[in-house]
Design brief:
alpha+beta
Length: 63
């Protein structure tokens, strides 16, 4: 993988944590199963029931 660029591959949230972007995940090419916030693979490797919970949160972020 190429060198990571802040704002493209990751950003730092209010708590100071590094958050990987959907672009980073697309370049990696697969779902790691950790339930990443910006997973573009619809959490395909995340086990149930967490997968269903994450999909629901992604569809209804205000809930």
């Amino acid at each position: 993988m190429e060198e990571l660029t802040e704002g493209v591959h990751y950003y730092i949230n209010e708590a100071g944590m590094i958050v990987l972007t959907a672009e980073y995940h697309r370049l990696r090419g697969y779902c790691c199963g950790n339930g990443c916030l910006h997973c573009p693979f619809r959490y395909e490797a995340v086990p149930e029931p967490r997968k269903s919970f994450l999909l629901q949160q992604a569809e209804n972020p205000a809930n």
